[in-house]
Specification:
The protein has 13 helices and 34 strands. The chain has 676 residues and is an alpha+beta fold. It has three domains: 2-59 and 567-672, Golgi alpha-mannosidase II (Immunoglobulin-like, Sandwich); 64-81 and 243-561, Glycosidases (TIM Barrel); 105-240, Jelly Rolls (Sandwich). The strands form seven sheets. It has an eight-stranded parallel β-barrel with strand order 2-14-17-18-19-20-21-22, surrounded by five helices. Strands 1-26-28-29-34-31-32 form a seven-stranded antiparallel beta sheet, with helices on both faces. Helix 1 (2-15) runs antiparallel to helix 2, helix 7 packs across helix 8 (380-387) and helix 12 runs parallel beside helix 13 (552-561). The longest helix is centred in the N-terminal third of the chain and has 22 residues, at 21-42. It is globular and about 90 Å long. 49% of the residues are buried.
């Protein structure tokens, strides 16, 4: 029967060319399921397998999550739903060569109107955001003068949807000035319009609601003043009313929903290299990212653009809560990136640490974060959380200290001070340390030695390797010391978005699941990338202003996230090998479901043997999900052929043989029988 299946599958490849690939997969799966059903009922070998007894163990309930970093315009212009770019005129050449406070803005004088604009900073809305625009209307004529912003490569509008506009205005000279707010299409036609009238010589926030009359992927926001006078403008904002979970100052619905569909058990934020920053002055300070957005302190992004920090720690915590993920905030270990002042390829000014006399205040900032997350509403920082609209704690249990930091005396001295203070004041918090940027080498070895010495609960490993490395290293964690720190695989990827890359990652993830008693957490990186604005490739999810493009790697992460368990069973599947056929078996105590994952990174059908004798009260029906196709296919990113999971159902017996399609990731899931 296995030979017959191979012959049929090869003929299907000839019969159905690439443009009918999804049809071919469905028909192929039908043939395979039919063949597997025959094997289930008649295989003599299937009745006699498994001389070894299955061994079970508890594994982490937080195993598979996501890692968010503001790289590739992942926050502003991405997950953060703000549609106006440079909304508070804080862009500068320090952020990006050629940028200035007017970047992304256009001064407009339609018709015969004229005036002028300038940037001022003497009386801002808030000292943390000093720049604002002064608009002088010398002759408004009929059309008026003003500003236009096209957002991030165009403002996307959906017909019938509503958009929330806000702006701070201060009247500097003249009588009350009528101001027209428009959303205009790429053809210049007015899509939506509303009006406000200035009425204060102090900064005042004006709000309005605009309803799109047509769908447009490249609209602009236009602000037109229509009377003589002088006004100051700042903090110009346009949000879709339909944010994720309708959160204020919220997230772009389609991107957030795509992340939520992974069902991540945790979210690590806000980075990566973003955390320790490009120099001590660029370290990420969480207190600068909370409170009213106009009061947050913006800064240069280490990846070569700007952070508005509109997506700040409060929004990260809320997103975690909205999707049922554990928050894992990461703070600097009071040192900057060892590559500060230059790229990691050529070196820079090197790692520097805060002066030891500053460490008391810095450590207090770390402790204050834990109070902000977990403290009662009447505590100092719990009250700030409550004032933002969340009186109940966020129930933080993890905190990361440092990211890929060089294992210097400077780093170790400061990490030790922070860790000991956290454990003294909050012993239940799990501290996540760091062991560098590589799966081995001096930094890795020294990091583990230091982590064990300090009794750090979890150590963060990072590695970006070629796909075959992931196949060769499936036993990496088998021999790790179970009495030492647990592992967080905080950043990993196989340097590509082909099906082959995704399957190599899937095979490796089965070994992570097998070692879920020592590996506590794991997350692919990077998570998001705006097409045309990438500093790093590959990534898990690509997007533009209107669409989201999940990669094949994304579907692997989603399938693991949606099919997680908390108890692992060995020796359920035989017929595997150490290089290209991998499997894991888990149960979920919440549902009682049994979940079997099997990966075939070969170009032919492969038979494995399954023995479910260790499990009772399972339904005979199983849901089968298969991800398969040609190994070099890339999904969606460039509009190429889609490879997506295909779902079918079968009936099984306690022992059976199963044929894996070439280049495939298969999940079989059985529900527990209902109690009568």
């Amino acid at each position: 029967m296995n030979i017959i299946c191979k012959t049929v599958f090869k003929k299907l490849h000839i019969m159905f060319p690439i443009q009918f690939k999804n049809i071919r997969i469905l028909i192929s799966l039908f043939i395979l399921v039919t063949a597997n059903t025959v094997l289930n009922s008649g295989s003599i070998y299937a009745q006699s397998i498994h001389s070894e007894k299955s061994v079970q163990k508890r594994i982490s309930t937080d195993l598979f999550g996501v890692f968010f970093e503001d790289i590739n315009y992942a926050a502003d212009g991405g997950l953060y739903a703000e549609l106006v770019q440079n909304r508070s005129f804080e862009y500068s050449p320090a952020d990006h060569t050629g940028w200035n406070p007017f970047t992304a803005w256009e001064y407009i004088t339609p018709g015969y109107a004229y005036g002028n604009i300038s940037v001022a900073s003497n009386q801002p809305v808030h000292e943390n955001n000093p720049h604002y625009v002064v608009l002088t209307i010398e002759e408004p004529a009929k059309e008026g003068v003003g500003l236009k912003n096209a957002g991030f490569n165009g403002i996307p509008l959906i017909s019938g949807d509503t958009y929330l506009f806000s702006i701070y205005i201060r009247q500097l000279a003249g009588a009350a000035i009528p101001v027209t707010i428009q959303l205009t299409g790429r053809d210049g036609k007015v899509n939506a319009e509303t009006k406000i009238v200035t009425d204060s010589d102090q900064w005042k926030k004006y709000t309005a609601v605009l309803k799109a009359g047509a769908t447009d992927d490249s609209a602009s926001l236009v602000i037109i003043a229509k009377a003589k006078g002088v006004i100051a403008l700042d903090e110009v904002s346009l949000f879709p009313q339909n944010t994720y979970k309708n959160e204020p100052n919220g997230l772009r619905n389609d991107i957030a929903g795509t992340i939520a569909a992974i069902k991540p058990r945790f979210i690590r934020f806000p980075g990566g290299c973003l955390v320790h920053g490009d120099g001590l002055g660029n370290m990420y300070r969480w207190k600068n990212t909370i409170g009213p957005v106009e009061q947050r302190l913006q800064q240069k992004n280490i990846w070569g653009y700007h952070q508005s920090v509109g997506l700040g720690f409060f929004e990260y915590f809320r997103f975690c809560e909205d999707i049922g993920a554990e928050p894992l905030p990461v703070l600097p270990a009071a040192v900057c990136c060892q590559n500060s002042g230059g790229s990691w390829r050529i070196g820079g000014t090197g790692q520097h640490g805060l002066a030891l006399q500053e460490m008391g205040d810095y450590i207090q900032d770390v402790l204050d974060l834990i109070e902000y997350a977990n403290g009662p509403a009447n505590s100092v920082w719990g009250a700030k959380r409550a004032a933002a609209g969340h009186p109940l704690p966020f129930n933080l249990k993890y905190i990361g200290i440092g990211n890929e930091d060089q294992q210097s005396d400077t780093f170790r001295e400061r990490f030790k001070l922070i860790q000991e203070a956290v454990k003294q004041h909050y012993p239940a918090i799990n501290v996540v340390g760091t062991v560098g940027w590589s799966p081995d080498g001096t930094e890795f070895t020294q990091g583990w030695q230091f982590g064990k010495q300090q009794k750090v609960e979890i150590l963060d490993e990072h590695y970006y390797m070629n796909p075959d490395w992931f196949l060769r290293n499936q036993h990496r964690y088998d021999q790790y010391d179970r009495s030492g720190p647990k592992v967080y695989i905080g950043e990993y990827a196989s340097r590509g978005n082909t099906l082959y890359n995704a399957l190599c990652e899937a095979a490796y993830m089965t070994s992570i699941e097998k070692n879920g008693d020592i590996v506590q957490l794991a997350s692919y990186a990077p998570l998001l990338a705006r097409k045309g604005n990438t500093q790093w490739n590959p990534n898990l999810i690509y997007f533009d202003q209107t669409n989201v493009y999940p990669t094949i790697n994304y579907y692997v992460q989603q399938l693991f996230g949606n099919n997680s368990g908390n108890r692992y069973y060995s020796h359920i599947v035989t017929g595997l090998n150490d290089s290209s056929i991998a499997a894991s078996c888990v149960t979920d105590s919440l549902t009682g479901d049994l979940i079997l994952k099997i990966v075939n990174v070969e170009d032919t059908l492969h038979m494995v043997h399954v023995n479910l004798a260790a499990f009772r009260n399972l339904e005979k029906n199983a849901v089968v999900t298969v991800l398969s196709g040609r190994p070099q296919t890339i999904n969606n990113v460039t509009g190429v052929t889609n490879i997506v999971p295909v779902v079918t159902a079968i009936q099984t017996t306690k022992t059976f043989d199963w044929n894996l399609p070439p280049y495939s990731f298969t999940i079989l899931r059985w529900k527990q029988k209902s109690k009568q």
